[in-house]
Amino acid sequence: MKRIIPLVFLVAILASCGSTKNYLERSDQDKALQDAVKRLNKNASDENALKAIPILYADIQQNHLAKIKSYRTGKDLTRWDKIINEYEGLQNAYTAVINSTPAFKLVNAQNFSTNILEAKQEGADQYYQLAQTFLDNGGRDNAKKAYTYFKKSDKYIPGFKDAKVKMDQAFENAVVNVIINPVEDNSFFFNSGWGNTGYNYSNEYFQQTLIRDLQNTGSANRYAARFYTDWEARRENIHPDWVVDLRLRDMDIPYPVNYTYRRNASARIQAGSDTSGHPIYQTVYATINITRMSFTARANMEVSINDIATGRNISFRNFREDYRWQQEAGNYSGDSRALNANDWSIINNNNNYNTPRKEDILGELYRKIYPQVKNNISYAVDW
């Protein structure tokens, strides 16, 4: 027992050393200082923390200030994020020290709150000036940049000058009026016995639904675009900037085809008992004659977005989807006891095939294609 006690003390000492592992050897000095101050708050006589804090604070101040000096020589506007980040690192060190009575006695900490404010002020002003330059140059791309920089300026200093008003102005300058044309149906579907029902359904599903969904999404996400049908643009005398053409190609909804096959079934059942009461089993057999009706419908939609004034193609995508349907019916011969639940489901179908309606097939195909078309248009107009 006497040998165990010293070992326990040794483990405790090693654990203590591990928990306060030489702060000066850590790669993240900012985190090391925070940990050392926390340790000192718990134990004001902790030697490791007492020794490390003054050295860590001096190194942190030297390193951050050196980076700030280097960043200030740059021309890139993003330097202000870096400068502010360095000042905030210094301020975090200051806050940690002054909020700790034992640490406060070790270090003459410097307050950098004024420096942070001044850096934000300088950054906000430079972003504002550049944003104004882009706004004055005109054009959607310049308006988008102006909006971004005015927003950055207001983020640094909330309410900076008239940055929010300028943001709205830049946004309006960047807005494009987008016409979504009716679906142009060049598919076999339109030119076959399915008739014009599919054409009307296509326009209702795509043109009208796209207008509604994109307008609602735009209100929530604030992207610079307004959407109109072709007849809405004419009615409201809207001069469109972009046009979205939807072309349905290779729409193929074939008639169901029959495929007949047979499958053998078997089951081991109890046929009775012997004189001792033990069960007697036998295997029974049945043959299931199955007729499967099936088809695979396909649709291919091209989405082209073009700038009307320049004729420039902004986006061209092709979306293809399949819809598979099948149903089985049948009869059997042999012992019914060999059949399972799935077999009976096929047999009980009694040749009553529930073939999907044309609109249902279109709905399944469009349900897969529509989100891709919508996202494609959203991406094209997004900031």
Describe it for me?
- The protein has 383 residues and is of the alpha/beta class.
- It has helices spanning 4-19, 29-42, 47-72, 79-98, 101-104, 113-137, 140-156, 163-174, 197-221, 230-235, 341-348, 358-381, and strands spanning 176-185, 225-229, 242-252, 257-273, 279-307, 313-334.
- Strands 1, 2, 3, 4, 5 and 6 form a six-stranded mixed β-sheet that branches.
- β1 (176-185), α9 and β2 (225-229) form a beta-alpha-beta unit.
- The longest helix is centred in the first third of the chain and has 26 residues, at 47-72.
- The radius of gyration is 37 Å and the shape is flat.
- Mean pLDDT is 88; it is low at 1-5, 8-20 and 190-197.
Which key terms come to mind for this protein?
single chain, alpha/beta, six-stranded mixed beta sheet, flat, disordered N terminus
Give a short summary of the structure:
Strands 1, 2, 3, 4, 5 and 6 form a six-stranded mixed sheet that branches. It is built from twelve helices and six strands.
